[in-house]
Design goal:
The structure is a single chain. The strands form three sheets. The protein has a four-stranded mixed β-sheet with strand order 5-2-9-8, with no helix packed on it. Strands 4-3-6-7 form a four-stranded antiparallel β-sheet. The chain has a two-stranded antiparallel ribbon with strand order 1-10. The protein is built from 14 helices and ten strands. 51% of the residues lie in helices and 14% in strands. A hairpin with a 2-residue loop joins β8 and β9.
């Protein structure tokens, strides 16, 4: 007997699940740039090593569209190393119980054993999903992750057959209901019930929205944008579509479009935390771009703007680990090291897999000459991410920290 997917409470996380997969990699890249800059400033020996003749320069981190690159070598924050690429094809089904409704869509996320995102898919109303991606190097284990309000978090390794250039797998996900009253997910993401949407939004607009989500899950962000624009044209007050469109613009680095769209989403739902989290992310990234271009005063003002927006988002949703992580990063950029340390540790308390927060703590401790604590956080990251592509750079930083401690 086929079980139907999710009750009203078991609905798809549309916003911050996407944000984690879109944004986290961008923040990790920025954090590593700061790590390398700090290491160069703090440890003269490491700076000399960086200036020594090399066989080749480190390639810039791949991004959806080009950005001004920092002057220091960058580290690629991608979940897989550039080894032999595979075609990944994973099919599956989510089972929630005999009383599940058939109106919800659920996001299914895929990541490496180090927690670095690869992509995501959407389960249909029957609970079935299909994830396809090319150009992935499977030198790490692959995990499937589902987080739905009212159910216990799910994260399991995906097993499949590795043929010539192809990884095929099938997974059945049994979600277990929480025994107590649930609260918002620690990532701060909202959930959307299509049945509730159709009660207040024209059906054609919801159809466009649903199709846009599916295009986004395939990596077709341009098509997703077009679909969301059509949905908003049909229903200008469609908050979920506005907020999701802002996320798509952010991923495409169309910052001005993202800002205006997210401000509109904020106005449509004044009590929601998600538009503010996304706006704070946008302002942080814009500040990084301004800093890279040498516009330090402008960057400082933008980082302050990011900090203000993110602090307000945390007041609305104190359980958002990513909001804490970005807020801590913005405070670090503003030189508020003590406060940054507190906020970043709160992010890790909410989610121990917030690797970007841990790496930013390395920056905070190094800048404050607290090398023992910097070494501790570096070791934790390396232990949790044994095959992370950033490992060689962190090993060098660790070596210089150990030299400083030995003096």
């Amino acid at each position: 007997m086929r079980l139907r997917l999710a009750s009203k409470r078991a609905s798809r996380q549309i916003v911050f699940g996407q944000e984690l997969s879109i944004v986290r990699a961008l923040l990790v890249r920025r954090i590593f740039v700061v790590c390398l800059v700090l290491a160069g400033l703090t440890f003269p020996v490491f700076a000399q090593e960086q200036q020594a003749p090399q066989g080749g320069q480190a390639p810039p981190a791949p991004q959806p569209t080009p950005q001004p690159q920092p002057r220091q070598p960058t580290i690629t924050p991608q979940p897989t190393a550039p080894s032999q690429s595979q075609i990944v094809n994973i099919r599956g089904r989510i089972i929630t119980g005999p009383h599940a409704a058939d109106t919800s869509i659920v996001e299914v996320r895929f990541e490496t054993d180090g927690g670095q995102p690869i992509g995501f898919a959407y389960a249909d109303s029957g609970g079935e999903f299909n994830f396809q991606r090319t150009g992935i190097s499977l030198d790490q284990n692959l995990y499937v992750v589902v987080n739905i309000e009212g159910f216990k978090p799910y994260r399991e390794r995906v097993y499949g057959g590795l043929g010539t250039g192809t990884f095929d797998g099938f997974v059945t996900i049994f979600l277990e209901r929480e025994s107590t009253v649930s609260v918002a997910a620690k990532g701060g993401a909202s959930v959307v019930d299509l049945k509730q949407l159709r009660a207040r939004i024209p059906g054609k607009a919801v159809d466009e929205y649903e199709r846009a989500l599916k295009e986004s899950s395939k990596g077709n962000r341009a098509k997703a944008v077009e679909g969301l624009q059509r949905a908003i044209k049909l229903a200008p007050d469609f908050y979920e579509a506005q907020n999701t469109l802002g996320i798509q613009y952010l991923a495409l680095q169309r910052y001005d479009d993202a800002e205006s769209t997210l401000l509109r989403a904020r106005d449509l739902s004044p009590k929601a935390a998600e538009p503010l989290i996304n706006l704070g992310t946008l302002y942080y990234q814009r500040g990084e771009t301004q800093s890279d271009a040498g516009r330090s005063e402008e960057a400082a003002a933008t980082f302050q703007k990011a900090a203000d927006v993110l602090e307000e988002s945390i007041r609305r949703n104190p359980l958002s680990a990513s909001a804490h992580s970005y807020f801590g990063a913005a405070l670090y950029k503003l030189g508020s090291y003590d406060r940054a340390e507190t906020v970043l540790n709160q992010a890790l308390e909410l989610d121990a897999e917030q690797h970007n927060a841990r790496l930013m703590l390395v920056n905070v401790y190094t800048k404050s000459s607290r090398y023992s604590e910097a070494l501790e956080q570096t070791n934790i990251f390396l232990a949790k991410n044994p095959k992370a592509p950033q490992r060689p750079a962190l090993e060098k930083i660790k070596e210089q920290i150990e030299k400083a401690l030995a003096k």
